[in-house]
Each structure stands twice: as C-alpha cells, then as structure tokens.
Amino acid sequence: MISESKAPSPSAGTPPDQPHIVSLVLQAKKALQQGEQLCTNAHSLSSASAQIAVDVLALDAQVRWMSEAVLDQLKLAAQVAKNIEQKRSELEGQVQEWDTLRNQRSDALDAVLESLGTQSVPPDFHTVSADSSPFGSQNPSEDEDESTPFGLPQSTSNPRQSPTDTIRNRSPLARLQEKKSRRMDKRRWKTLRDFVDERAIEDLLDTIERDRQELDDILAQTSDYPESLATTIDNIKSTIPAEVVLPSFDTIFASQEETSAKMAEHLESLAHHYDNMTNAMHEYEAGEEFHDDDMEGMNTDADTLPGVVMELEEGVHSIEAYRDQLLAAKAAAQEHLDTHRRILKDLDELGDIMTDMLERQQHVEMEGLDHLAHLHLQLSPIEELHHKYTSYQYAYNKLVLELARRRQYREAAQRVVANTIAELDAMVAEERMLRSDFQAEHGQYIPEDLCLCIENLPNRWTVSTWNDESLETLPEVEAELVEQAKQRTSGIGVGIGTSQSL
Description:
- By secondary structure, the chain is mainly alpha-helical.
- The protein has a domain at 19-104 and 228-366: Substrate Binding Domain Of Dnak, Chain:A, Domain 2 (Up-down Bundle).
- It contains 8 helices and 2 strands.
- The chain has helices spanning 21-117, 172-184, 198-220, 225-239, 249-285, 292-442, 479-489, 494-498; strands at 120-121, 190-191.
- The protein is rod-shaped and about 225 Å long.
- The two termini are 124 Å apart.
- It holds the Pfam family ATG17_like.
- GO terms for molecular function: molecular adaptor activity; protein kinase activator activity.
- Its main location: cytoplasm.
- InterPro entries: Atg17 (IPR007240), ATG17-like_dom (IPR045326).
C-alpha cells in the first residue's frame, strides 16, 4: 500500500536531475485507472458468481427431482420384471406338476407292461388266428398261428388240424410233435406282453411328447423377458450419474467479499496517491520546488504502484477462480440434468417395451394354460391303458384258474361216466350169467315157439355226450401256472375283476 505521504513542501534547493513531477502524476493516474478497471471486473465477477450460484441451485433441484423420477420408474420396471417372473414361475410350476403326473402314470404303465413280460403263455393258449386278438400280437412266429387267450377257434373240418398245415407241407403228427417241443422248451413261450399293441402305445406317448414340446416352445417365447428387463434396468442404473457435489457457497462468497474489501482499500490508496500527486503537480506548475526528501518519498510511492496493481490483479484472479468453481459446478449439474433427461427418454421407451412384454406374457400364459389343459386330457388314455392291461393280466390269471376248474370238472365227469359204465358192464355180465343159468335149467322144456325173446342177450349200455357232441378240448395248464395265477389274483380288489374293459 502506498504510504500516506503529505504533499511535498516547496524548497529552493531541489536538484536539477530529479524526475519530472508530470511523469509521477501520469504513473499515479495510470495505476488508478488500472485499479478502477480491476475492481470493476472483480465486481462483475462477484455478481456473476451470485447468479451462477442461483443457477447451480436450480439445476441441482431439477437433478434431484429427476433422480427421484428415474428411481421410481426403475422400481416400477423391476416390479414388472418380478411380476413376469412370478407368472412364469407359477405356470412352470403347473407344468412340472403335469410332468410329475405323467411320469407317475407312465411308470405305472411301464410296470404293468414289465409284469406282462414276465408272465408266460403256454403254446396251447394261442393256436388260432391273430385276428381274434383284442390287442394284436406284436411278435408273430412263422411256424404257428397267432391268437390271444381270449380268441375263439375258427371252425374247420378237422378241429385238431390247422388249415395252413397243407400249405406249409406239414403233417398233423409233425405239428403235434412241434407243439410238444415248444411246450417242453419254455424259452420259446410267448408272454402276455407279446399280445400288447406296443406300437399304438409308442404312438400315443410320442404324440404326448410332441405336444409337451409345443408347450415348451410356447413358454420359450417370453423366457428371456425377466433377464432382459433385469439387464436393461442394471444398464440404466449404471448410467445414473453420481450426486452433484456442490461447493460451499458460504465459503466462496465470504472469500470473495474479503478479497473485494482488500481491493477496495487498495483502490482507495491509489486514489489518495493520485490526489496527492495532482496537488504536487499544481504546486510545481506554480513555480514551487520540492525538497529532496519530498522527491524521494514521491519516487518511493511511485515504485510501490506496480505491487499494488499486482495485488489487485491477484484479487481479480481469486474472485475469478471462485467464479470458475461455480461454473464447473453448474456445468456438472447441467450435464447431470442432460443425462437424466436421456435416461427418462430411455425409460419411456422401456415403458412401451414393458407394455408389449406384459401383453405378450398374458397371451403366452393363456395359450400355455389352454395347451396344458389339453395335455391333462391326454393323460387319460395312459390311465385307461394302465387299467386295460391291469385288467388284461387279471383276466388272464382268472382264465388260467377257470381252465383249471373246467379241467377238474371234466375229469370229475369222466370219472362219473367211467364208474357208471363199469357198473353197467358188471350188471350186464351178471345178467348174462343169470339168463344163461335160466336157459340151462329151463330152456329145454320150453317150446321153441313160445316167448322167443327169452333167448335174447341183455342190452349193453354206453354213456355219451348229449347229441353225440365232441368232447370239450381244453389246453393243458400246468400246476405251476395255476399256482402263479392264484398268487397274482390274491389281494386284488374286486373292482379290477368286475370292471374290466377288455
């Protein structure tokens, strides 16, 4: 700061080489003008700083409001993604329940088929055409006619001979020997499963599997929706800028005010120095001269002018730096605002996409439920097949027991017939002896033309079927098969045996 020197007093002893007073006045004037300009700039910067601070606060308020709007919409988008995922999970849960039910029924059907494959059928049980089979044999042999245990024999001229024997050039004896060979070799016996139409079962299961795959294709239409939404939400979140760090307005304005006060003091000092130098110049023009001490003081004050101006410039730079700090905060806030506007635009587009997703998910859900209902209907044939072949096995075992019972009946009837014939033969023999004794004792005395019937022999008797029907032919059932049939039918509910649908 310039010293508070008084106006120099005139003196007659001023040296001739002292600086001219006019030059000192011009220096003082120039310094004052520079100081005034710098203070004006500082004032403008301070005013601009205040307006910039207002703009920063306004932008920050908009950024905060938009940040809340962005976060709210992101929460809504996350809820939509969660809702879609929940709907898909519920539908997939129903599909898994159907898969479990299908596996249970398929396993039950497989178990029945496996059981049928373990139960042998004697060759005598299938000696007629396969056309009479209610299921159709899947493994016909070349050397025998196919049938099921429920087939009825075809009418032929010889019930003991197949009509194809002549074509195959086989004699009845050879056929009987072959049948006996097959009966002896149980490895060649068929099983109940050989009479099952497994191709139809495979076609049914293949159809169900194709329909199940179609359901997967329906569900796959929206399978990526939850993940896609989650990824989009995460990407948008990653673009949200961090919160704007505002500078300390109190500190900035306090520093600017302090700097302005110092600059005002410097400007006042420059103005006072200029006034002193102007007065000195007027005195000099009036012919007065100055002492050496006065000139030295003026020169010293003139030497301090650049330092004062420099301090004023530093003050301007300081205020400008605070202004630039506020400008940087404003630019950051404006950038954040622009970013949030872009995010809100992206969220608007995402909203349209989510609307389409929800509509598509609803359509997929309705279509999937309809298809799932159709799949549930397709499980009924599997259950029906399970009941059909369970009843088939049960009926076959009952057939074995029925054949064994009929054989017992036939054998009992034959025993009665044999006993009756033996008793009748004994009676006839006894009658013949009695008649012979009568003839020997009395016949010679009876005239020949008297009662001619007396010489007749007693009638011989026979017992035969009604109207000479052929004896019933029953396939041979081994005791082992009968025992197995008893074991397989024991403990089975009456419902299976009484509600068969063969």
